[in-house]
Amino acid sequence: MTDTIIAQSEPVLVAIDISKARHEVLIAVPGKKRRRRLTVLNQLDDFNRLVAAVAEYGHPVRVAFEATGNYHRALAYHLGCAGFDVKLVSSVALARTREALNNSWDKNDPKDAQVILHMMEIGNEQFLLSDNHLGRCRQPPWPVGLNGRRACPSGG
Questions:
Q1: pTM
Q2: What's the structural domain count of the chain?
Q3: Is residue 6 part of a domain?
Q4: Tens digit of pLDDT for each residue in 12-38?
Q5: If 40 and its partner were Cys, which of 46, 97, 101, 128 is the partner (CB 3.0–4.6 Å)?
């Protein structure tokens, strides 16, 4: 009998600290030691710039962030439509991990992005992409299955 081996490349990890006007992004590419930092404004042009910057690596992409009010919804929807694996990080877990890693309650956006990336590396994240999380103000362009649910391009 033949053994089937499925080779899957490691994903590019994208950690995003969400805020009202701008988002701090930290990108970890497999095989590279240095991480890339970006600041993305809460605008469609910058969302497209982020998608293009991450897609150029040619690996699958996994994105995680802490849900912050409603500010994460537009970016989550845009990244999900781009075919990325979108995940959430628990606010409580993020706070406890930040406190344990830095031995301090000090907090800023770039540091939060680093902690989110650390949580992604150890697999401490939750699934996000569903109609309930993305809201129903605008129906996504995904087809509706036989069960009445929308089929997301990222499989979530």
A1: 0.74
A2: 1
A3: no
A4: 999 999 988 899 999 999 888 889 999
A5: 46
DSSP of 116-140: HHHHHHTT--EE--SHHHH-SSS--
| Tens digit of each residue's pLDDT (9 = 90 or more) over 48-58 | 999 999 999 98
Instruction: Name the E strands within the chain.
Output: 12-17, 22-28, 36-41, 61-66, 85-89, 126-127
Q: What is the rounded distance in angstroms from the CA atom of residue 12 to the CA atom of residue 31?
A: 10
Please give the structure tokens belonging to residue 111. 């540091």
Which domain range does residue 75 map to? 12-134
Average pLDDT on 1-9 reads: 61
Q: Please give the radius of gyration of the chain, using alpha carbons only, rounded to the nearest integer.
A: 16
